[in-house]
């Protein structure tokens, strides 16, 4: 008779096979053939570039690599802890609705379900181990020990991440506030230390690009400091095993310790998960005993707030043109839901603003404006989309409702994308205004970059949502497909930036050659902004086409 663990292992394997077959079928679909071709081209370019970099780079010092493998895990854990402690909604070990229904309602022990979650996480850890082992193979002597060490470190990191997440779920509100203060202080201290190292190793007056390159070295210094290495003691055996140069008796001890820490972390996860469930149940019982039947979320959004919001929405809708009222109503729905994330969104854009303005502190007056603009463009394309998932990517479980609304495709797209685009444009204009006051680049530069960066924001979110509608995925999805998606999007965005810069330089040259100085500047500004918005409008049209051809019966991914 098979045990529940064997049944869950069977479920994990067959679910992975099903997802692989489904992914292949989706890539071969005629409706997605263009997106598949572009993804294949970008992925091929990414792989070829990776081989070139691996072939041309120098081998790393084993001691530095050892410190990176241990201290880098702690830095990521600190980042995840700070992000998790400021998240209002604590999920239950990232179970999907289907897992909560079929596994949570099944006669299974909580520890069995927790072990199942760790088991599914190991599949993605194996894929990450393969890629990291290929990258780090030239730096070590034993590939097999490197693979075992990296796999043990990644599994321990993911398990520790889930341990911390469940620990937060069991804390009371008062203790969670204390955790926010303490962990935020730790994160700020790590950032201050990183900037201190970056300033120390960069000569004063250097080009801002040198600061960017030296920031990676600065992160390495933080990862190798004594405090971080003391916190990384659980990862030390795996790091030592991965960088082993000669096999001795200590290698066997390191192998045993690295492997033994995995079941130890799983047991700790099961124990803390049970403690969190008991604490949650006790708080619910205390609320019921006190006669408090209203949740904190319901208390924050009372009847008066809902009534006043509806009244304001009706007034705004009455002022809009008839053709745009449907899009405005959908936009108002997005605005109502953003109130819970307002603090998180502001915090998410404070650091990019500081980073974009940091070139102003380098003391080089010649190219500060160019680096500020480049920083805003990079933040728009790389940081804004994951920070502002207030569009189709958040509404995957409500696609049936959205498809049933009597909206034209372009109105649905405008209603879903307007709010994140406006927030991104606000970040751009505030940063440009501060930089313009300090650098004084001229009115033409401020106007042209304000218009082009605004178009870039529209293009970025339209492209992200078009790809999502062509290949939808759940918010908590992981695995090989998500790695490929991230790499393809990175290469695609880099290609777009490169082509846009080349086209802009060509346009500037043509304007200076064909027109005199007083006339060339307005033509250059109008042409650059007009071309940018034409590309953005095309991206919106493609997104509307993808939404119009979105098939709920076939495109919704299973959980």
TrEMBL record:
Q: Which UniProt keywords apply?
A: Membrane, Transmembrane, Transmembrane helix
Coiled-coil-forming residues are: none
Determine if Membrane is one of this entry's keywords: yes
**Membrane-spanning ranges:** 33-55, 67-86, 130-157, 177-199, 252-272, 341-362, 368-392, 413-440, 446-469, 490-510, 522-547
Q: Establish whether keyword Transmembrane helix is in the entry.
A: yes
Write the protein's name. ABC-2 type transport system permease protein
Organism of origin is Roseiconus nitratireducens
């Amino acid at each position: 008779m098979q045990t529940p663990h064997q049944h869950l292992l069977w479920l994990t394997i067959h679910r992975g096979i099903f997802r692989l077959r489904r992914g292949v079928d989706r890539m071969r679909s005629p409706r997605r053939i263009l997106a598949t071709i572009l993804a294949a081209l970008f992925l091929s370019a990414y792989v070829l570039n990776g081989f070139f970099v691996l072939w041309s780079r120098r081998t790393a010092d084993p001691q530095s690599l050892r410190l990176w493998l241990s201290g880098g895990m702690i830095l990521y854990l600190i980042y995840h802890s700070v992000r998790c402690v400021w998240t209002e909604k604590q999920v239950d070990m990232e179970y999907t609705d289907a897992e909560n229904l079929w596994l949570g309602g099944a006669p299974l022990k909580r520890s069995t379900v927790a072990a199942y979650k760790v088991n599914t996480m190991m599949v993605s850890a194996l894929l990450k181990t393969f890629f990291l082992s290929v990258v780090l193979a030239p730096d070590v002597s034993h590939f097999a020990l490197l693979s075992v060490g990296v796999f043990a470190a990644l599994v321990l990191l993911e398990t520790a991440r889930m341990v911390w997440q469940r620990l937060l779920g069991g804390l009371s509100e008062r203790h969670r506030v204390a955790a926010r203060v303490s962990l935020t202080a730790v994160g700020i201290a790590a950032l201050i230390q990183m900037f201190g190292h970056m300033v120390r190793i960069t000569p004063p007056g250097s080009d801002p690009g040198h600061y960017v390159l030296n920031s990676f070295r600065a992160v390495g210094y933080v990862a190798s400091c004594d405090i971080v290495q003391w916190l990384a003691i659980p990862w030390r055996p795996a790091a030592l095993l991965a960088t082993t140069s000669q096999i001795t008796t200590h290698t066997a001890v390191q192998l045993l310790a690295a492997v033994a820490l995995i079941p130890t972390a799983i047991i700790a996860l099961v124990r803390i998960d049970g403690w969190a469930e008991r604490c949650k149940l006790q708080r619910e019982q205390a609320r019921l005993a006190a006669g408090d039947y209203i949740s904190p979320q319901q208390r924050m959004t009372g009847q008066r707030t809902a009534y006043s919001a509806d009244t304001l929405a009706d007034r705004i809708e009455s002022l809009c043109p008839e053709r745009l009222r449907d899009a405005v109503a959908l936009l108002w729905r997005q605005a109502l839901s953003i109130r819970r994330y307002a603090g998180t969104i502001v915090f998410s854009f404070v650091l990019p603003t500081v980073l974009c303005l940091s070139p102003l502190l380098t003391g080089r007056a010649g190219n500060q404006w160019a680096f500020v603009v480049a920083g805003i463009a990079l933040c728009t394309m790389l940081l804004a989309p994951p920070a502002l998932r207030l569009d189709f990517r958040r509404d995957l479980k409500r696609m049936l409702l959205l498809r049933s609304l009597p909206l034209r495709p372009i109105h649905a797209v405008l209603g879903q994308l307007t709010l994140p685009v406006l927030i991104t444009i606000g970040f751009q204009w505030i940063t440009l205004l501060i930089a313009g006051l300090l650098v004084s680049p001229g009115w033409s530069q401020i106007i042209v970059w304000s218009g082009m960066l605004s178009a870039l924001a529209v293009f970025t979110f339209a492209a992200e949502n078009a790809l999502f509608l062509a290949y939808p995925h759940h918010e908590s999805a992981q695995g090989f497909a998500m790695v490929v998606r991230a790499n393809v999007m990175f290469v695609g965005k880099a290609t777009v930036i490169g082509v846009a810069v080349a086209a802009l330089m060509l346009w500037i040259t043509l304007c200076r050659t064909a027109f005199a100085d007083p006339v060339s500047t307005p033509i250059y500004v109008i042409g650059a902004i007009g071309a940018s918005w034409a590309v953005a409008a095309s991206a919106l049209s493609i997104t509307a086409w993808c939404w119009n051809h979105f098939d709920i019966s076939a495109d919704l991914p299973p959980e």
